[in-house]
Amino acid sequence: MRRGVLIAGLALLPLGWMLSPLGMTGHMAAHMIAVAIAAPLVALGLQGHALDPAERWPRLASPMVAALVEAVVVWGWHVPALRRLADHQPVWLAVEQASFLIAGLWLWSAVLAPRHRVSGVAALLVTSMHMTLLGALIGLAPRPLYSHHGAGALEDQQLAGVIMLLVGGIAYLCGGLAMLGRLLQVRQEAHA
Hints:
By secondary structure, the protein is mainly α. The protein contains 8 helices and no strands. The longest helix is centred in the C-terminal third of the chain and has 39 residues, at 153-191. It is globular and about 60 Å long.
């Protein structure tokens, strides 16, 4: 267990939750902290330990299945009706934030499992694409998608979209490229 990495990931979660009430931008920052920053740190901290989800439940640790589940969670909570529900009812906000963390941890744990190196790279690159697409759709929408945010809603939504596009897209792309580099290095060493 890598305690420092695990503690850093866990310490970031309350920061994200504190940002959540600060409009759509704060809420998006909380989402990105949960799935793209805290979850990979927690997964790295738990990697190979008995608490590692990929070790505890190896049959559920399929990177592509985890990527699909995370996509459903992320896109689902950005449907305007569900977004409104989470914004106005604290119980649903907690469910939303927990689902982001669980889906993110599941994905990162699955892709970091040594037996899933190739499918892990593919899962992270696919996730990078859908995060980038959703961020672009939110940020480039010509009108507020989440009208319940009031005055300045379009600007808030545009900034939230940029945060998702940059943090979500880049975190998963960098993770996928780092894993690809490690995979190529392992293969090169095996052939040497």
